[in-house]
Amino acid sequence: MVDANVLIAKFKQRFGNEPQIYCAPGRVNLIGDHTDYNEGFVLPAAIDFSCYAAISARPHDHLMLFSENLGETIAVSLGKPIEPASKWTDYPLGVFLQLQAVGFALGGANLCISSEVPIGAGLSSSAALEVSAAYALLGAFGHRADPLQIAKLCQKAENDFVGAKCGIMDQFIACRGLAEHALLLDCRSLQFEAIRIPDSLRIVICNTMVEHKLVAEQNEYNTRRAECEEATRLLAQHIPHARALRDLSLSDLENHRSLLPSLLYKRCRHVVTENQRVEQMAGALQRNDLKQMRKLMAESHHSLRDDYEVSCRELDLLVALAEQQRGVYGARMTGAGFGGCTVNLVEETHVKEFHRRVAEQYLAKTGHAPEIYVCKAVGGAARVS
Ligand code: ADP
Ligand code: MG
What we know:
Blueprint: H1 4-15, E1 20-29, E2 41-42, E3 44-57, E4 62-67, E5 72-77, H2 90-101, E6 109-115, H3 125-140, H4 147-162, H5 169-176, E7 181-186, E8 192-196, E9 201-211, H6 214-236, H7 250-255, H8 262-287, H9 290-307, H10 313-323, E10 328-334, E11 339-347, H11 351-366, E12 371-375, E13 382-384
Parallel strand pairs: 4-6
Antiparallel strand pairs: 1-3, 1-13, 2-7, 3-6, 4-5, 7-8, 9-11, 9-12, 10-11
Helix pairs in contact: 2-3, 2-4, 3-4, 3-5, 4-5, 6-8, 8-9, 10-11
The site of magnesium ion (MG) has 4 residues, from α3.
């Protein structure tokens, strides 16, 4: 875990002055994957792993970017055009450029990043990095912005400068997370409702510790997006109100099934049914309907595995192992897939046993020790005093 005092001490040693510190959380999505870019619904919670950004303004026209996690410092001159370099610095640089583009006056700065969010595990270390960097840059130059504007600018940075076509979910929850709650977010209107997570349940995240080649994953992700766009195009010719897959009911889809190649039909069925499950899950959490939560999360996993085809052997195994344990009210893959993590809702009294047994059994079957995180839902980005 990051100790803010240690971060300050190291920053002073490195840059010779006192930083301001900002942090932004990672997130876990309880249900609703691959729905955000279809303008649908998601149900993420910010988790108690944060990315910290320590910053001070510099007199010279340079950004000094340092990542504690990677042990790397990169100096970027602001005197010439900034181009993407296909590395981690693209995230803070993309954010810098987006902030400037909408008129925030920024200058040279020392920016030191230290993150607790596992990197590349599907818990959105990237949005935590972008959002903490945005808060830091704004704060260091005396600006304030609305969290929604920050979320949108960070998403644009990731889409346009980093080149990852992510939806708005990750940046939104990093900015607007709420302690003890998940947010039922409409990714079209950006209206949201806070949904309390029942006190008796813990969010337990199991990390497969496998990362299926990043490039392949990115390709698969972009392919899924293209498939959804193509399906929307085909359906919209006969269903005028279908601007995105979010606009389809299951009966719309069934009635027009013949318009779609079978692969696109499956992709659509995932998105349409997943959107329904998100809203049902919000209701189940509010009623503390444990049986329904378990059923919806199982259906979500099956849909992602069979219709959307973004699961993998290790995720399926972690879900199967979790479902055999006592006190489990839901287990599914979470995030984009192809490795990364599962999310589990576990009764507090059973968490220890769950942890021990799942870790043992996963290690025995795969030879990899999983990392298991017992998380709390926390608030969004903030200045650290
Ligand atoms: P996720 O967001 O699920 O963790 P991504 O592939 O979207 O996975 O983002 C991971 C990338 O974000 C890393 O490869 C790295 O470039 C960048 N990143 C995240 N956290 C840090 C950090 N603390 N220091 C440097 N780069 C980071
Ligand atoms: Mg990410």
